[in-house]
From TrEMBL:
PROSITE patterns reported for this sequence: GH26 (PS51764)
Catalytic-site annotation from UniProt: E188, E296
Similarity field: Belongs to the glycosyl hydrolase 26 family.
PANTHER family for this protein: GH26 DOMAIN-CONTAINING PROTEIN-RELATED, MANNAN ENDO-1,4-BETA-MANNOSIDASE E-RELATED
The keyword Metal-binding belongs to this UniProt entry's keyword annotation: no
Location in the cell: Secreted
Protein name, as recorded: Mannan endo-1,4-beta-mannosidase
Site-annotated residues for Plays an important role in maintaining the position of the catalytic nucleophile: H187
Source species, domain of life: Bacteria
Pfam families membership: Glyco_hydro_26
Length: 377
């Protein structure tokens, strides 16, 4: 029998509190980043934020117009989560890289100052071969083993990470604070379409590169405004499969999943299976005291006029999921079919307004003080 003394009780409380604090991997994270982390956890228990990739950079038939997004044109509010990409931070001329950084810098700061949230994907151009970020037979090189510590391209990889760190240090708002970002490197790694995918990369090499990336950014380059997200595609059916390439709790803040196939790709739904997968990593995040998010999904062209409420919202409200946000993919500038959020006149517009009006979903107008300890829903 164990007797609980005041001293033991205090120690127990401290251990529990310490464990919670350990959930965020960067102990030196900025105050705003720490507050964002905690507030996202709070949101996930009763609500979900809506996000859209490249929402402010361009949309259906337009680009580079101040304070515009297709979502705002439909609802009156920007998405709560805005997706950007570091794809042009390498494999481009210095001039192109600097131009991209300047455009994104303004985007990130403006989002922070409005009270929105930025998430960053990274379609990383292969540093060791031609072929861009996709795997192309006969062109691409299996390069994760080359960029890990000791690899032939490791020093080059460090220079690329310095470019990312420079950007992270540059997104300073008018209040003098750095804008926090959710950084999501090497996404969909369980597929074979990217050069860092499972078919081209051993488990050991993937984990080694992930661990080095996080450690180098936060511990050597001093990046303290990142929340790190781990997001495979939907090729798992158990917690064990989900964690097959997991780099460890010390290297991940957020668990996610990209899943188009179960929620409408080619007009084929398997929502029951998709929900099972969401539940797997949502439960893991609860156990590990991490964040969770539905990091990418969507129905291209949104031909189902009630997809937002009948498919997506119904799923997100199911089975006690605790997801901080859901993000749909981009609206292409010129393509008549490649879009994932509605615009005025699109067939799902009215249903999307119902999705927006539902108290469960939160858009940018619905959140205040997200970077403050004073945040309340």
């Amino acid at each position: 029998m164990t007797f609980i003394t005041k001293k033991n009780a205090l120690l127990f409380v401290c251990l529990i509190a310490g464990h919670f604090l350990l959930a965020q991997i960067d102990k030196n994270a900025t105050k705003e980043t720490k507050n964002l982390y905690k507030n996202l956890k709070t949101i996930s228990k009763k609500h979900i934020l809506f996000g859209h990739q490249h929402a402010l950079e361009y949309g259906h038939g337009w680009s580079n117009e101040p304070n515009r997004s297709d979502v705002k044109s439909v609802t009156g509010s920007h998405p709560a989560v805005i997706g950007i990409d570091f794809s042009d931070f390498s494999g481009r001329s210095k001039e192109q890289i600097e131009n991209t950084k300047e455009t994104l810098r303004k985007n990130v700061i403006a989002t922070y100052e409005r009270g929105g949230i930025t998430t960053v994907s990274w379609h990383f151009n292969n540093p060791a071969s031609e072929g861009g970020f996709y795997w192309k037979d006969g062109i691409s090189t299996a390069s994760m083993t080359l960029i890990k510590p000791g690899g032939s391209h490791h020093e080059q990889y460090k220079e690329i990470l310095k470019t990312i760190a420079d950007f992270a240090h540059s997104v300073k708002a008018k209040d003098g604070k750095l804008s926090p970002m959710i950084f999501r490197p090497f996404h969909e790694f369980d597929g074979d379409w990217f050069w860092w995918g499972k078919a081209q990369t051993s488990r050991e090499d993937f984990i080694a590169v992930w661990q080095f990336t996080v450690s180098y950014l936060k511990d050597i380059l001093g990046v303290h405004n990142f929340i790190y997200a781990f997001s495979p595609d939907n090729r798992f059916n158990s917690a064990e499969e989900y964690l097959e390439r997991y780099p460890g709790d010390e290297y991940v803040d957020m668990l996610g999943m990209d899943d188009y196939g179960d929620f409408g790709r080619d007009g084929k739904y398997d929502v029951e299976t998709g929900l099972k997968k969401l539940k797997i990593f949502s439960d893991l995040a609860i156990q590990k005291e991490k964040l969770a998010a539905f990091t990418e999904t969507g129905l291209e062209s949104i031909p189902n006029e009630k997809w937002w409420t009948e498919v997506l919202l119904k799923t997100l409200k199911s089975d006690n999921l605790q997801l901080s946000y859901v993000l749909v993919w981009r609206n292409d500038i010129a393509s008549p079919t490649h879009y994932y959020a509605p615009f005025p006149g699109q067939v799902s517009e009215k249903d999307f307004v119902k999705f927006y009006d539902d108290p469960f979903t939160l858009f940018e107008k619905d959140i205040k003080n997200i970077y403050s300890s004073k945040f309340k829903i």
